[in-house]
Amino acid sequence: MLYDRFQQEAIDYIKAGYSVIVSAPTGSGKTAIAEHIITEAIQKQQNVIYTAPIKALSNQKFRDFEHQYPDNIGILTGDVSLNIEAPILIMTTEIFRNKILDDPQSLEKYSWVIFDEIHYIDNPERGTVWEEALIFLPKHMRLLGLSATIPNIKEFASWVESVHNNPVKIVIEETRPVPLHFLFQAQNEIIDSVEKLKKLIFNRPYSLAQIRPNKLNALINYINQQAGFPAIYFVFGRRRAEELAFGLQGFNFLSNEERTQITSLFNNLCIRYGLKNEDTAQKLSPLIQSGIAYHHAGMLPTLKEAIERLFFSRLLKVIFTTETFALGINMPSRSVIFDDLRKFYGRYVRNLKTRDFYQMAGRAGRRSIDTQGFVYCRLNLHKIGPQEISRIIYGKPEEVKSQLNTSYATILNLFETHKDELFKIYPFSLHYFQSRKNEQKEALRLITDKLKLLKENNYIVNDTLTSKGKFAKTVYGYELLLSELYEENILEQLDEFSLGVLAAACVFEPRKNQRKPKLSKISRRLENTCLQFSEKIKHKEQRYRIYPFSKHPYFHLSLSMEAWLKGVDFNKILRLTDTDEGEVVRYFRMAVQILREILNADIASTLLKEKAKKIISLINRGIVDAEKQLRES
């Protein structure tokens, strides 16, 4: 195989026995480096772990690699466990981190770990998982980190070197194999450079009353005339994706032959995935027959996969989708369209980060097919000016920064091994490496006070984990609430249905102003019990100035979960909630993950484990069964 310069450089370092971190633009071919490691490992009968930031990407990699390396690929995520003794094991980074802390012996046979999207260490909610995995990475394992462009890759690699006392080679590629051309829709005109955009604004200063709306039809007609399909249209809201897709109902982008092909393919996929009678699939059918679709997290996972396969077939010409479609999923197009250059970041809407922009824009331009990719930005000139537009497109990507926020479970696992020596571990963190003295002091205080809280509340007694502490170290993210319920024997006393409702409540996160349905007596009683414990936990965390607070349980899915456990059809349980169908599936799968962690807790009683096992089997059926979806695909 003929490799690009950066691919060959990375492979040469790998052959020489070095760990390697690669920074290269989205769509430049970083996966080929991972494939080299996997091919070599299979030939030499070695073992490799491949980690991905999201389950959808883990599942896609499983399908891709299983096709390339039949019978050599396994997958282990919170809701899927297939062929886990295979030499190449794909998992989410959380699962890998948990294995390092809970069961390090199980990693002895693996020589490499591949971190896909390693810049996810910068993610505010989950980045701490990457940091912990890298700090405690077993000494015998080498790593390959694959990243979108990050300017501080040298600093990042220096930190990894300092932790493990082994050299880490960096490989940087700044040139895209398919260059991007940027165009803008402003005042309902198509402008093909920032300079021309500046002239337009300078020559015609607009008042609010003079702004002409950007018509979607005008942009789509222009792209069609330029032979710019297929196109991925990125939006920052699920409903917006659907509205825009249905706004193109008058268009038909397919020839009669293509229309016949895509209709047949979609019908076959609906039969395979049991979607023939699903309302959303039927609603999408007329759009698909015109070469149009939408894709977002609120859709059924099987329907999303069907849409992905249609797009991969190149029969879909325009897909309206949210940004997760850009995260590692190999779906290149000729054009990318941005509905806006502003998005919601945690608490407020602000202009896009350059790195986020290129994560999406990088899907434009198909290698070996297109000579260039086209990126269209729809602009409201009263919300964003040319200076910010230039910063987003031509500015330096944001540096990767630590998001360390060590969980109670991590602290308990570390204390079990290192006792109070665990405080000596913090100086090995990226947070310490990057931070000022006052930030280091505050991070250390947080770890110290979390440990104090654990000791004060009998998770640790006489420098030994109690049964409550041993239970807590296995249930990442929900440690305190579940462990307090465990200690009070409440988990043991719950019937199977209530245990399922509790698992769903732990993971559920309501939308802003989402209303909770009227609960059954059993769920209402369980909610009251949980809220009492949750309030006590919050009070203790406030006293120790611990933030963010432990997650609060929300019982919005209780009626749906109760009905599902009784065997009610999925479409009927959706009437009991205003949560999107895809989200219901996701939360049910997350509930299964919690129940599996309880099942794997050594300290849990046989009775509790039997209940957890039974509930898993009741939840994990039909559309919720992620393993079934993978087997069918």
Q: Count the helices. How many?
A: 27
Q: What helical percentage do the residues reach? A: 40-55%
Main beta sheet: strand number and arrangement?
A: 8 strands, mixed
| The CATH superfamily title of the largest domain | P-loop containing nucleotide triphosphate hydrolases
Give me a quick take on this structure:
47% of the residues lie in helices and 13% in strands.
Descriptors:
seven-stranded mixed sheet; 633 residues; Rossmann fold; alpha/beta; 3 domains; 19 strands; eight-stranded mixed sheet; Sec63 N-terminal domain-like fold
Write the layout of secondary structure elements.
Blueprint: H1 5-15, E1 19-23, H2 31-43, E2 47-52, H3 55-68, E3 73-76, E4 81-82, E5 88-92, H4 93-102, E6 110-115, H5 127-135, E7 142-147, H6 153-164, E8 168-172, E9 180-186, E10 189-191, H7 194-203, H8 216-225, E11 231-234, H9 238-246, H10 256-272, H11 279-288, E12 292-295, H12 301-312, E13 318-321, E14 335-338, E15 342-345, E16 348-351, H13 354-361, E17 373-378, H14 386-394, H15 408-418, H16 430-434, H17 437-456, E18 460-461, E19 464-465, H18 467-472, H19 479-487, H20 490-493, H21 496-507, H22 521-543, H23 558-565, H24 570-573, H25 581-599, H26 606-619, H27 626-632
Parallel strand pairs: 1-7, 1-8, 2-5, 2-6, 3-5, 6-7, 9-17, 11-13, 11-14, 12-13, 14-17
Antiparallel strand pairs: 3-4, 9-10, 15-16, 18-19
Helix pairs in contact: 1-2, 4-5, 10-12, 13-14, 19-22, 21-23, 21-25, 21-26, 25-26
